[in-house]
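yo, Ciliary neurotrophic factor is done. seq:
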Amino acid sequence: VYHEFCNHSHGNMAVWWLFSLFMFHLSCMSPSCAHPGGLSKAFSYSLKSTRCTHARVKQLLRRYKEEQLDDVQFEDRNLELKTLPSLSTDFNQWLQMKDWERLSTASHDLHTFWAHLDRKRREMEEEGDRASQGMSNRRKAKLSIPESIQCIQKDLRDLMTKVNFQLKSMNSSSVSPTSPNTMTWQVGLSTSSWAKSTSLWASRLEGYIILRDLESYLSKLTRDFTLLRTRHSLPPGTPHRGR
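structure:
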């Protein structure tokens, strides 16, 4: 089932209600004046970065739909790329995840989105080079969509660096974070998914799917960092699940 959070409005509201109730419970367990530890501060920075990146992606998605699909209201949740991270979430399973497991998954998923964006950006740059031959530079004042995608990629690299640092801080030998300094095309996209024979319209739909799913994923990652920050703000010895 594709996008349980997005496809079932009542289920989505229930999940958010449960999440809000859980976070309220945790906040009541921790004094507001408690001095946060190093990881709590690190998660706060990651949360802020994630929110900023989410806002940029949301803005870029709207522009992409307007300029590439000629319809700023375009929406089709039936379209999917199986090589992107799943956005389906079981609330109880999500709560029970270990902290290192949550961060390791985030590191992998961020890299996957980075790689998809990189491939799409290169495709659009090639298409743009052909289309811009003989045209004036009067529109150069505004960043092109590929340039905006590259900015998003930098944001994702920054987030990966933060996540990998947090993983190291936990000293877990069970994880193997992806280094943003050695990024390659490793996500295993099938040749058919990105075949050169793909029509221009299908290629543009792929870009829409990537940005749409990235926006949804960053909303999910925001909840992850909110939970991690709250957990690591608790006084030492406070029992909770997921450590």
